[in-house]
Amino acid sequence: VLNSASASDLSLLLSPSVALLLDIMIVAGLQKLAKRKGPYDINPGLLDYLTMDTYAFPAGHASRAAMISKFFLNHLVLAIPLRILLVLWAFCVGFSRVMIGRHHITDVLSGFVFGYLQFMLVELIWMSSNTCQMLISIW
């Protein structure tokens, strides 16, 4: 049995992990539905097929960066400079996808929106420390 401090740490670890898995599934599903290509006609390589990175809308990197940034901003106590760096990091992730020609700006903006919405969903279904202990004991 975990003590209370490690149980809350476990909840801070498992809930974002579930959020990332949720993001991968939602973004992949939306990309398969939209089937929007990036701004340049780039033939996807083997790695792109393995990582399901063949379509552009919405931008998965941007959604994950927005979700993780929002998670850290809400659940960690960070100094103001670190908070600013975290937000800048998320924007740089999205901007870099536009700069390398993988996404349109609207793909990235929609990725940010989807990332924020997924964060809100995970906040609604946040796993308590007891739930995390139960899941770990099952494994």
TrEMBL record:
Keyword Transmembrane helix: yes
GO molecular function: sphingosine-1-phosphate phosphatase activity
Annotated Pfam families: PAP2
UniProt key word Transmembrane: yes
Keywords for the protein's UniProt record, in alphabetical order: Membrane, Transmembrane, Transmembrane helix
Superkingdom of this protein's organism: Eukaryota
Residue stretches in coiled coil: none
GO CC annotations, alphabetized: nuclear envelope
Signal sequence bounds: none
Membrane-crossing residue ranges in chain numbering: 12-30, 71-96, 108-126
Domain named Phosphatidic acid phosphatase type 2/haloperoxidase: residues: 12-123
InterPro entries: PAP2/HPO, PAP2/HPO_sf
Gene3D superfamilies with a match to the protein in the record: Phosphatidic acid phosphatase type 2/haloperoxidase
Record's protein name: PLPP7 phosphatase
Gene label: Plpp7_0
